[in-house]
Specification:
The structure is a homodimer. By secondary structure, chain A is of the alpha/beta class. The longest helix of chain A is centred in the N-terminal third of the chain and has 19 residues. Chain A is globular and about 60 Å long. The structure holds a DNA duplex.
Chain lengths: 209, 209
DNA sequence: AATTGTGAACCTCTTCACAGCT
DNA sequence: AGCTGTGAAGAGGTTCACAATT
């Protein structure tokens, strides 16, 4: 298959959520123009993004909202259940444990890890926090597909190394640091400061241009 | 000034953090090649990104870590203090209140808002949660520059509308929905599901290519 | 000898524009 | 008549490659 850009994939995620809301509003048909308007892109962009994966609309009529949502869900792998382990039960980690948006899309947090002896054994959302030293065995048993790393920057690389050793192939990193992973392992970063700093940059330059 | 791409700005944020760590390690000089290696980009990319704003290195020698950090900080507006209001004190909001990375970069959360009467009046990190209906007056008094929106998707657009009315020009949105803002107002989205879904897409397609 | 700064080449992504369906 | 699907054109971002500098 042709290599698809990250930008296209993340727009598909957006369209998916937009379709979800349209369906909630009992809207059955939508045009690329309407999706584009809602998501702040061009209609050609919407059609092009979809065209990499097939033809999901009907000329002259638009797209059936349910069908398109199902198709995009299938493209993104949201038709599957993904088992997730969360490492680091600090502020961010705790917020993610019951972030309903994840569960809604089929990402089920099945294991919680932390290294703080004060936290190990505590129960959050019916899950007992496990010591990270035991990560290897548990990941296998629970068939974990994705690890979310929400540990301090200083220890993030060593945590990721251990996860990779344990066979994890997909990591979502919340630590504000660039991490190295071997080929074949995917890592995506969620660095909340970066967007804030972009706002800072624009505010600062607003009245200069 | 020439229009700078978002990609360049977010890489500058990365370099900034990398320099911070190099300085902590008492490293005084760094080459574009070394920064590139750490952050997973090419050295030409590092030099090009910097070149939009000036010449910060010395040929044959590289960059002084402290100077470069100061310069990037200045470019991004991190030499200033930015007053931030946080709207929505749920799971995510609570995690952000004491997310130390923000404070470290000069983003100070000064006001907390929520509409839940159970929460209004509660104190978190020395800040009393205020009813969102009073947002207008408070934003003025505290000279707020940036609003972080961490409310449910259903109410996010109406919250943003009120913030815009109150004169806010920069918004960081955590609700998983595309929001409309008038020209002149900047909005950045932090949609944690999008990155997870990109991982899902790649896992699903891993063994097909 | 080493490394920056940068125009030019290259590549990738977006938009245009229209043929093709409904 | 209306809207999709898509090749081609255009815009924008990245990498190359080398002159300039220390």
């Amino acid at each position: 298959m042709e290599r698809i850009s990250d930008a296209t994939i993340s727009r598909l995620s957006q369209y998916y959520r937009t379709l979800d809301r349209l369906i909630e509003q009992k809207i059955q048909t939508v045009s690329s123009d309407e999706i584009a308007e809602i998501d702040g892109v061009t209609s050609a962009q919407v059609r092009k993004d979809l065209s990499f994966f097939g033809s999901f609309g009907r000329r002259g009529l638009g797209y059936n909202t349910r069908d398109l949502k199902t198709n995009i869900g299938y493209i993104l792998g949201l038709d599957k259940i993904w088992n997730v382990a969360l490492i680091g039960i600090g502020n961010i980690g705790r917020a993610l444990v019951d972030y309903s948006e994840f569960k809604k899309q089929g990402f089920i947090i099945k294991l919680l890890f932390d290294n703080d002896p004060e936290k190990v054994g505590n129960i959050i959302n019916n899950l007992s926090i496990i010591s990270f030293s035991e990560v290897h065995e548990h990941l296998k048993v629970e068939d974990i597909h994705i690890a979310i790393v929400a540990v301090p920057a200083k220890v993030a690389q060593s945590v990721v190394n251990k996860l990779v050793e344990a066979g994890i192939k997909a990591i979502l990193n919340f630590a504000p640091i660039s991490l190295k992973v071997p080929r074949g392992v995917m890592i995506k970063n969620e660095n909340m400061s970066i967007e804030l700093e972009a706002l800072s940059y624009h505010l600062k330059n607003k009245y200069k241009k």
